[in-house]
Backbone:
């Protein structure tokens, strides 16, 4: 009996020593690396999964803006008249749209009996960037043609050159894929008859 107890104690001691050796030989588990920054696109999609997004959708966009412009330069010095912009775009990212547009405005002026128009028309390419869900800014540049003193039975004199524009806008209301907004645009150009500037305020309607 005593011998059996002694043998059991020896075996228990050996088992404890072996277990301790195994524990010592195990390598410590390194801590898990900290999580990386969240993916912006995945985060936006998760937030807007059940919401109607204000960001530009995929594919083509169309926009038309009609309003009032002030033209400074040319023969009239300062003229006031209608302003128009027609834009075709393509969504590049969730916040950016590549644009191609025809933009123009007219400055009306009179002599003693007749009314004439100095017109400025540009063919531009640029980018529109949403800084928030509804507010955007844009910039574009390209070719510009200024025509002086047209109308009243007279043909105007065109002058070619280059121009650039900068603008900002606010989306006010949305109906499905149609968005109503307000925008202002500054356009500067240099043509054969000298530099000119235009400031335009317009209401726009956009499909995207």
Residues:
């Amino acid at each position: 009996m005593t011998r059996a107890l002694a043998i059991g104690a020896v075996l228990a001691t050996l088992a404890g020593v072996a277990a301790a050796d195994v524990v010592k030989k195990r390598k410590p588990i390194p801590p898990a690396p900290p999580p990386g920054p969240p993916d912006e696109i995945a985060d936006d999609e998760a937030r807007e999964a059940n919401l109607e997004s204000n960001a530009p959708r995929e594919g083509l966009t169309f926009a038309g803006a009609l309003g009032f412009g002030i033209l400074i330069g040319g023969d009239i010095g300062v003229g006031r008249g209608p302003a128009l912009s027609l834009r075709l775009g393509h969504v590049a990212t969730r916040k950016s749209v590549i644009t191609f547009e025809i933009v123009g405005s007219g400055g009306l002026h009179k002599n003693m009996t007749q009314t004439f128009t100095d017109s400025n028309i540009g063919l531009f390419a640029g980018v529109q960037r949403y800084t928030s869900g509804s507010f955007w800014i844009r910039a574009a540049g390209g070719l510009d043609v200024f025509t002086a003193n047209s109308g009243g039975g007279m043909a105007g004199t065109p002058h070619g050159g280059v121009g650039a524009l900068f603008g900002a806008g606010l989306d006010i209301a949305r109906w499905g894929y149609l968005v109503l907004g307000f925008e202002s645009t500054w356009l500067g150009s240099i043509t054969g008859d000298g530099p000119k500037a235009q400031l335009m305020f317009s209401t726009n309607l956009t499909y995207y």
